[in-house]
Amino acid sequence: MDMTGALWRKSTRSDNGGSTCVEVADNLPGVVLVRDTKDRDGGTLAFNPSAWRSFIGFMATQR
Question: Over the range 11-48, which residues count as b (16 or more CB within 10 Å of their CB) and which as e?
Fold first, then answer.
């Protein structure tokens, strides 16, 4: 997958100490990417936008 041009942002729910941070890139067409801030080269998860919205919606109900 070509991730050139991905604009990464840190999750607003990441802890301030940096030990549990994830980054999300949702600016590429048809895909949302997620990676571990501490291990950016360790792998990237890819979701279709619909699945990502469902996940975020579910997580919002778990607060």
Answer: eeeeeeeeeebebbbeebeebbbbbeeeeeeeebeebe
pTM above 0.70, yes or no: yes
State which residues of the chain have pLDDT below 70. Answer: 13-19
Contact between 20 and 37 (Cβ < 8 Å): no
- What residues are paired with 32 via a beta bridge? 47
The sign one gets for the Cα dihedral 50, 4, 43, 39 is: negative
CA–CA gap between residue 23 and residue 43 (Å, rounded): 12
